[in-house]
Amino acid sequence: LKELFTSHKEQFQDAEIELYGKKESIRYYCTDLLWGQKLYQELRFVLVEMDGIQSILASTSLALDPLSVIRLYSYRFRIECTFRELKQQVGAFCYHFWSKHMPKLSYYQKKEEPSPLERVENEKSRRKVLETVRAIEMHMALSCIAMAIQDSAICISIARTVLQWEYCRAFPFVLPESSTPGRYVTRGRLPGGGCQKPLSCTICGNIFSGF
After folding, report:
1. What distance in Å separates the CA atoms of residue 148 and residue 181, rounded to the nearest whole number?
2. DSSP 8-state class, residue 173
3. pTM for this prediction
4. Which of 54, 61, 176, 209: CA 20 to 30 A from 152?
């Protein structure tokens, strides 16, 4: 695949696309090829050149246009950062919602076989399984809300601190990275003062107290 950057150099197209919040000039080439071992599958490959860096992207959807594939790959890093914050700072995956009625999953399930939920015939068991899934989804939704609130609180506090220091030209202010709010929250304080206990515990405690 990497040889296509030289052998099909004339077939690359120039385009401008918004990536990571700014316009970028890229060159790309798209081709559909069979890929795999024994069970071959047709994949869409997008070869991209940007700022001297060559990348090869792949998509299982042949309906996506090349620029959409490139744009979706750029969202991947935002998603990974969000998962990191949910896991390490908010504790969104520290749930213990489970039920003895949950069916066992099989790694060797065939496509023609019914799904695990379809194999649950007892109406009470099906209701318990759905309640468990709903509890997990609700916990994740509330965790995302808590993360958004804590990030907003930190950004407001940082902006207030910057305004207090704007008379000092040497103030080395840069925008905080995505993990900064979580680190301040776990320390139990805001950069501008206040919040004597972890903010995430306060948010989650207030949210769940309503249930």
Report:
1. 10
2. -
3. 0.54
4. 209
